[in-house]
Amino acid sequence: MYGNLGRNVLRGPGLATVDLAVHRILWRAERQSVRLRVEAFNVANHPNFQIPSSFGLFTSSLTRVGSTGRISETTSTSRQIQLALKWMF
């Protein structure tokens, strides 16, 4: 039990990502085709921060922990783009 804390006080920042995929058939014959695919992850390059570190305010010897509540990492990666060329026969 958390005592008299309010509801949802231990939540961190939200998560927002936008992924995009596009493909196109470049060449097609009777039994063969070539397809180009482009995929992009986290298109907006939005930083998604991790939850705050360690909710403990004091150590066992009752000294104050200076890094409590700091956000020092991100949850997701930065923008990534990948290309694929597929030959189907």
Low-confidence segments:
none
Strand order of the largest sheet: 1-2-3
Number of helical segments with 4 or more residues: 0
Number of strands: 3
Proportion in β-strands: 25-35%
Q: What series of H and E elements makes up the topology?
A: EEE
**Average of per-residue pLDDT values:** 83
Distance between the termini: 62 Å
Helix content: under 10%
Number of domains: 1
Write down the oligomeric state: single chain
From the alpha carbons, calculate the radius of gyration and give it in angstroms. Answer: 23 Å
Largest sheet: 3 strands, antiparallel
Q: Which class best fits the helix and strand makeup? A: mainly beta
Which geometry do the CA atoms define? rod-shaped
Layout: helices, strands, pairs:
Layout: E1 20-28, E2 33-41, E3 80-88
Antiparallel strand pairs: 1-2, 2-3
Write a brief caption for the model.
The protein has 89 residues and is mainly beta. It has strands spanning 20-28, 33-41, 80-88.
Q: How does this structure look, described?
A:
This protein has 89 residues and is an all-beta fold. The protein has one domain (20-88). It is 0% helix and 30% strand. It has no helices and 3 strands. The chain has strands at 20-28, 33-41, 80-88. A 3-stranded antiparallel sheet has the order 1-2-3, with no helix packed on it. Strand 1 and strand 2 (33-41) form a beta hairpin. It is rod-shaped and about 75 Å long. The protein starts with 19 loop residues before the first strand and ends with a strand.
